[in-house]
Automatic annotation (TrEMBL), chain A:
InterPro entries: Hydantoinase_B, Oxoprolinase-like. GO terms for biological process: glutathione metabolic process. GO terms for molecular function: 5-oxoprolinase (ATP-hydrolyzing) activity. This is N-methylhydantoinase B. One of its GO terms (cellular component) is cytosol. Pfam families: Hydantoinase_B. It comes from the Bacteria. Residues 7-525 form the Hydantoinase B/oxoprolinase domain.
UniProtKB/TrEMBL annotation, chain B:
One of its GO terms (molecular function) is 5-oxoprolinase (ATP-hydrolyzing) activity. Residues 206-506 form the Hydantoinase A/oxoprolinase domain. It comes from Bosea lupini. Residues 7-184 form the Hydantoinase/oxoprolinase N-terminal domain. InterPro entries: ATPase_NBD, Hydant_A_N, Hydantoinase_A, Oxoprolinase-like. This is N-methylhydantoinase A. PANTHER family: 5-OXOPROLINASE RELATED, HYPOTHETICAL 5-OXOPROLINASE (EUROFUNG)-RELATED.
């Protein structure tokens, strides 16, 4: 830090100004974007970086994307050094050598110059509707190398000194099935960058470039000190946890994700050695995402208001052997890699649950369930991209939440009415499923059900998980209920589809696809659950009478709705006895 | 003897009820009386009785009452609304609970979601289904509705919301269901439906709105009948009107029907007062700045028209207007004046954490126990205690001497709780706290300006509310605003706004057509149908539409976008409308796309019945110079002795700061580098030097 004294109040003022700029960027993207994925599901993120490319503020967007900016900004520094000019805009999506995650996630980055001096970067990433490849939506699990997945954009200039690089625009336009959406969403990302530019310019005008720089350095140092404080409070040790991806295809082989978390004084090291090797399917997860998921999980440890700037990452190291599922080698396909990122979060959360159970959370639904469906209806093509989330695991002292985004995501849901207004798809049901929350003293959140009827011939692909390895419980809590993919043909036949099918399916008009997410993991012994909570769940239809008797060992009074406290205590004692 | 008649504006707050009386010749008088939270109508009746006596008149000379209230908002914040049931399309009763899934804060695994206002067991389903075009796929099952009604009755439900999928496109099933429920449940149960309250696409937002409406409907209905009875008991039988969040007024009956529209009635009144203040002047852009005990609020007024929005989350804590879908509160989609509200008011608590981070709010000591210096039992240092330490406000008493202060206790709290742990001196700390509060309030102003692509530096700040004029000049300085106006009656300005509001109601018809599929005749047909709806409804409510203004507007977006921009439809010219949209898009987001098709999503109509009232005038004030006092303006914390004057001590000639203007209901601080004069209307006009 510079010799200049840092005044804590000015530091707070600057931090607020930066945070509001990052939020403003997020707002601009949402309101002006074209695709349902960005505008309704809100699969995009915004951040502001300093002149060294370090994140200094994050918009209220997706943690699992936000923590990926440090890596791509490293590539920007390496590739462009001090050769960027005012009015340049950079674009990239390539996971190999450019810091991308998978091809649909396009990063738009803009260096910000004030008075001729590089003063910071605006950073955005958004999931685009389609970047080409074998299937609409560019996410085919059965892809085996990245070349099958669509257009790769290494770090390139999209604008050079304020002028559009026409060649890049033409290439983009020619390589997507949805040029209007893709170009519209890119414009929205650029509009957000311009807002950031204005915000930073105003701040520099107020404080001067040098003073602002020293405050930003102080902000990083402050965040680092807070994070070290959090880690120092944890007992030193090596904590290991394994979670699993169910695996791909008809006869899935489980794929372990192993996280070894080493706490040493005020540092944390996370090592993925032991994780499954990369696979011949598109769930390989370039390191950018696992690293981001790891940062995100550790950040959740702190209950304090740590500034969301890069300083807090300094005490955290992440490593993964090359060639494994979380650090694949080129040209491994990675379109559906997201699921691995969420499982990395889960594995680390299980390790943290061994250290500080009071701050951990049981397994969530497992991350977004993808359904990409498309076809032609009345002469017009349509693409439905669904990324469905919805459930939290239990916390110490609190039930899991149902009807909420995965903690690492912060996605939204597409309004049923918007889907039906634009596409030949009818949504038959969207709601909660009773008895699916992992039993525990505090139960996991309930799973969601979402049912689609195709009104026209439709080809679709899927990616789920958490059927063979449902979301974990902890401290004696049970796992949540497994997920399900069911195809109900118009002729009355019913078929269970794999969680990660290595094929696409053809639905006829009238066929129904039923998607049920996994339930959240529970916390603590279910036999300890307060009967008042169980009665409340019964009234609310979140647990059935049969489920309550089975999972919580309760005995009902003669009225069939209230719990007989004494009989329940006796039955629970007997059940506990039988366990030992 | 010729008797005057009186119109009265009443704005109820937590501690005080602000009353503004307008005599038929335009003379204005203001009063502050204690609120009676156990039954607000009692306080109102007492105040009116006192007025009648003071004026030596009779209750029938009160010819109109316009009212703003927080009863609706408080019912939600305190979960004291009705036991509410919800009837939905089969398969969708959980839409209300699943919301839009978003989490308002990152990295917080201990987060708790707001609980649904209709419990799951009171959310029932009926077999029925419409397609997006409104056509019937599955007819409504009457048995299901009857069964639901029985269940609601068994559960003792007091209100029922009906929300079916695609009911915005065809209300038939909802109307049928409503008829059945009414027949089964009787008039005691409050019933409302989505297709009536919000006929717009997006099931969650519509369902949430209609559920909020049902949840507070019975509360508003009871309040309205208590008020009517109480007024009748003292002989006041005039029409009572209520301010809605959109800034217009409506009859009590409409307020009961559209209870959710009362949620921001008080803040809307303040913005309307600002808009009227500048109407007819050449002021193109005004930002209203209203600061009270718990929050600061800002709104943008362009060419005399307040910016509007249709999205609002009640109970979300901090509410930045036009915000992201956050999920921290209960969304209402209705016409709102676009007020951003942030948790920084006089009662905001000043705190430091383990890492010496200082914060001001959003926790508030509120009106009770209030700031430490109020001596009502407050122990935690607040922003008001910092004002006092700096010398910004009188350290002996407020409200014209009627409210004594314990200044030493306030200073000591700030010193012990904040200054000493930080190792700073007291004055420096108070200055820092003020700066921090100003930054927070700046976000509220930015939310209505920079977030919408408007440059605040081009605007004039109009400051009011108990604390607005104390900090307005500093807020202006932080944003590069050059001019601040502090109007007459600034401390009760919202109540004044009630008397300056027109009757105003908004009507919507969905269109969902592409601009290139519509010709001018089609457009005219759409708007004509909307106009006919409006005439029918308003005539039914007993309004004479002779003087009514009809203002048409359209919500447009590029095909593929999900959020519309609203542009005025002065003529039914589809090409002009499209061009206006392109321009607004460029202004808001910095780009336009001439290539992409434009969607006309909704036709809108605002009907305004202009208020016929004499020009308001205030009684003359006497100059009231007080003793100079020490005020600290600079970062080093040193204080200088400066003048304390009354409004009447100012004149048309600019007086250079620093000085303080003290009034009965508020204090206005004019700092160094600023000067102030009085304009012809009696407003304080503060000029800031360019930084």
């Amino acid at each position: 830090m510079s010799a200049q004294a840092i005044d804590p109040i000015t530091l707070e003022v600057i931090r607020n100004a930066l945070a509001s700029t990052a939020d403003e960027m997020a707002l601009i993207v949402m309101r002006s974007a074209y695709s349902p994925v960005v505008r309704d599901i809100m699969d995009y993120s915004t951040a502001l970086c300093d002149a060294k490319g370090r994140v200094i503020a994050q918009g209220l967007t997706l943690p699992i994307q936000l923590c990926s900016f440090p890596r791509i900004m490293g590539f920007v520094r390496e590739r462009y050094g001090d050769r960027l000019k005012q009015g340049d805009v950079l674009i990239a999506n390539d996971p190999y050598g450019s810091g991308g995650q998978h091809l649909p996630d396009i990063y738009i980055l803009k260096p910000i110059f004030v008075d001729g001096r590089l003063s910071g970067f605006a950073a955005t990433v958004a999931h685009h509707t389609d970047l080409g490849g074998i299937v609409p939506g560019s996410v085919a699990i059965y892809a085996t190398e990245i070349q099958q997945e669509g257009l790769r954009l290494p770090l390139l200039k999209l604008y050079e000194a304020g002028q559009p690089v026409e060649a890049v625009f033409r290439i983009l336009e020619a390589n997507t099935r949805s040029p209007i959406e893709v170009l519209g969403d890119i414009r929205a990302q650029i509009a957000a960058c311009n807002v950031a530019e204005e915000g930073l310019r105003t701040l520099i005008g107020r404080y001067g470039a040098q003073e602002l720089d020293s405050y930003i350095d102080a902000l990083h140092d402050h965040a680092e000190a807070m994070m070290r404080d959090v880690i120092r409070a944890l007992p030193n040790g090596v904590y290991r946890a394994t979670d699993y991806i169910d695996g791909v295809g008809e006869n899935p082989q489980p794929l372990p994700i192993v996280a070894t978390v080493t706490v040493a004084d005020d540092t944390i090291d996370i090592d993925f050695t032991g994780t499954a090797d990369q696979v011949a399917a598109s769930i390989n997860c370039p390191i950018s995402l696992p690293e981001s998921a790891a940062f995100c999980a550790i950040r959740c440890l702190s209950q304090q208001d740590i500034p969301n700037c890069e300083g807090y990452l300094r005490p955290i190291a992440v490593r993964a052997p090359e060639g494994c599922l979380v650090n694949p080698r080129y040209p491994a396909a990675c379109g559906a890699r997201g699921v691995v990122g969420y499982r990395v979060f889960d594995a680390i959360m299980q390790a943290l649950a061994q250290i500080v159970p009071e701050r951990a959370m049981g397994g969530s639904e497992g991350g977004p369930y993808l359904l990409a469906a498309g076809g032609t209806h009345e002469g017009r093509p349509f693409v439905l991209n669904e990324m469905v989330v919805g459930t939290w695991g239990a916390r110490a002292g609190k039930d899991g939440i149902e009807g909420i985004s995965n903690p690492a995501a912060n996605l939204s849901n597409q309004p049923v009415e918007m889907i039906e207004a634009d596409m030949p798809v009818e949504v038959l049901r969207y709601g909660l499923v009773p008895d699916t929350g992992g039993p525990g003293e505090f139960r996991g959140g309930l799973s969601f059900i979402r049912e689609f009827r195709f009104l026209a011939p439709t080809r679709f692909v899927l990616r789920g998980d958490r059927r063979d390895h449902p979301p974990f419980g902890f401290e004696g809590g049970s796992p949540g209920a497994p997920s399900a993919h069911i195809l109900l043909r118009a002729d009355g036949t019913e078929q269970s589809l794999p969680t990660m099918p290595m094929e696409s399916f053809n639905a006829r008009a009238g066929d129904v696809f039923r998607l049920i997410g996994a339930g959240g993991g529970g916390y603590g012994d279910a036999l300890q659950r307060d009967p008042i909570r169980i009665e409340d769940d019964l009234r609310e239809g979140k647990v059935t009478a049969a489920g309550a008797a089975r999972d919580y060992g309760v005995v009902f009074a003669a009225d069939g709705v209230s719990i007989d406290r004494d009989a329940t205590a006796r039955r629970r004692a007997a059940l506990a006895e039988a366990r030992t | 003897m010729a008797q005057h008649s009186y119109r009265i504006g009443i704005d109820i707050g937590g501690t005080f009820t602000d009353v503004v009386v307008a005599r038929d010749d335009g003379l204005i008088e203001t009063r502050k009386v204690p609120s009676t939270p156990d039954d607000y109508s009692r306080g109102i009746a007492q105040a009116l009785k006192a007025l009648v006596e003071d004026y030596q008149t009779t209750p029938d000379r009160i010819t109109g009452i316009v009212h703003a209230t927080t009863v609706a908002t408080n019912a939600i914040l305190e979960y004291k609304g009705a036991r509410t049931g919800l009837l939905t399309t089969e398969g969708f009763r959980d839409v209300l609970e699943m919301r839009r899934l978003r989490i308002p804060v990152l990295y917080d695994l201990q987060y708790d979601k707001p609980k649904p206002l209709a419990a799951r067991r009171l959310r029932l389903e009926a077999r029925e289904r419409l397609a997006a075009d409104g056509s019937v796929r599955i007819p409504l099952s009457r048995e299901d509705v009857v069964a639901a009604a029985r269940r609601f009755r068994e559960e003792g439900v007091e209100a029922v919301a009906i929300s079916f999928l695609h009911a915005y496109a065809n209300p038939r099933h909802e109307i049928e269901a409503e008829e059945i429920l009414r027949a089964e449940l009787g008039d005691g149960v409050y019933i409302c439906r989505g297709s009536e309250i919000l006929p717009e696409i997006r099931e969650y937002e519509r369902t949430s709105t209609v559920v909020v409406n049902a949840y507070i409907g019975p509360v508003v209905r009871n309040y309205a009948s208590a008020l009517t009875a109480r007024l009748a008991s003292i002989g006041v039988t005039c029409q009572v009107e209520m301010m809605h969040s959109g800034g217009g007024i409506m009859r009590l009956g409409s307020a009961v029907k559209r209870a959710a529209s009362l949620v921001e009635s008080g803040p809307a009144a303040g913005v309307i007062a600002c808009a009227r203040l500048v109407s007819g002047s050449d002021e193109p852009s005004i930002i209203s700045f209203d600061m009270g005990g718990t929050t600061a609020k800002a709104a943008l007024i362009e060419h005399g028209e307040p910016a509007r929005t249709t999205e609002y989350e009640v109970g979300a804590g901090i509410n930045l207007s036009s915000k992201l879908v956050k999920g921290g509160g209960y969304p209402i989609k209705m016409p709102f004046i676009d007020v951003s509200e942030i948790g920084a008011g006089g009662g905001s608590i000043v705190a430091i954490d383990r890492m010496n981070q200082v914060s001001v709010g959003p926790q508030s000591a509120g009106a009770y126990p209030g700031p430490v210096c109020y001596g009502l039992g407050g122990r935690q240092a607040t922003l008001t205690d910092a004002f006092l330490t700096l010398g910004y406000i009188n350290d002996i008493a407020l409200a014209g001497g009627s409210f004594p202060l314990k200044a030493d206790a306030g200073r000591a709290a700030l010193n012990d709780q904040v200054a000493r742990p930080l190792g700073l001196d007291l004055q420096q700390t108070a200055r820092g706290v003020l700066t921090l509060a100003v930054t927070t309030m700046t976000r509220a102003v930015k939310a209505v300006s920079t977030y919408r692509g408007r440059d605040p530096r081009q605007a004039t700040l109009v400051a009011f509310g108990g604390n607005g004029p104390v900090v307005a000049a500093e807020v202006a300085m932080a944003l590069g605003i050059r001019r601040v106006i502090v109007p007459r009656a600034a401390g009760v300005f919202s109540a004044l706004g009630l008397l300056r509001s027109d009757v105003e109601q908004e009507f919507v018809r969905p269109s969902r057509r592409r601009a290139d599929e519509l010709d001018d005749a089609g457009l005219e047909q759409l708007f004509a149908a909307l106009g006919a709806d409006a005439r029918r409804i308003l005539a039914l409510e007993g309004y004479d539409l002779g003087q009514a203004e009809f203002r048409y507007a359209a919500d447009l977006r590029y095909v593929g976008q999900a959020y519309e921009l609203t542009v005025p439809a002065r003529r039914f010219d589809i090409a002009e409308l499209s061009e206006l949209f392109h321009r607004e898009h460029e202004r808001t987001y910095g780009h336009r796309s001439q290539k992409d098709a434009v969607h006309l999503v909704n036709a809108r109509l605002t009907v305004r019945l202009p208020l016929v009232a004499p020009r308001h005038q205030f009684a003359a004030e006497a100059p009231m110079r007080r003793a100079d006092r020490a005020v600290s303006f600079n970062a080093s914390g040193s204080a200088a002795s400066i003048a304390v004057i009354g409004r009447a001590d100012l004149d048309a000639k600019a007086r250079r700061g620093p000085f303080v203007i003290e009034e009965y209901d508020c204090t206005c601080v004019v700092g160094p580098g600023q000067s102030a004069r009085l304009d012809e209307a009696g407003n304080i006009d503060i000029a800031l030097e360019a930084a």
